[in-house]
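Agenda item 2: magnesium ion complex prediction
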Amino acid sequence: MTPLPLLEVSKLKMHFDAGKKRTVKAVDGVTFQIREGETFGLVGESGCGKSTLGRVLMRLYQPTEGSVIYRGTNLHALSEKEQFAFNRKLQMIFQDPYASLNPRMTVREIILEPMEIHNLYNTHKARLLVVDELLE
Ligand SMILES: Nc1ncnc2c1ncn2[C@@H]1O[C@H](COP(=O)(O)OP(=O)(O)OP(=O)(O)O)[C@@H](O)[C@H]1O
Ligand SMILES: [Mg+2]
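Presented output:
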């Protein structure tokens, strides 16, 4: 038995209303699967819809059509509470570190912030300890 794919994108469409009855079909029927341990690269000319597809996967957009299934769960059919919990599992990593790291925050604060948002390790003191361990 082949294991369930990690991510299954099926017939995904993301169309934008561009005014004057015009529609931009940024993503128009994309299907692929990613298995656990696999590295997947998406390549194409500028404007072909790579970033839009990524944003749909991150649930920043509700797709026009199609589905995104992660380990058997439809990502666009989650309740708000489930979405919040799910944000711990799926994250964007931006290429440019200068755009990723907020220069107004210390490294300690940056590592701490997601732990506070998701209330990990119970107490503030415990979180600070984990941050220090990670930095070590
Ligand atoms: N919010 C939006 N509203 C309307 N059109 C959009 C929106 N976002 C993207 N588009 C259009 O959808 C198309 C795909 O854009 P997208 O940014 O996904 O391409 P890309 O493959 O990431 O390009 P690049 O390689 O330059 O980063 C483009 O024509 C873009 O102008
Ligand atoms: Mg892009």
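Discussion summary: The two ends are 42 Å apart (CA to CA).
Owner for follow-up: CH.
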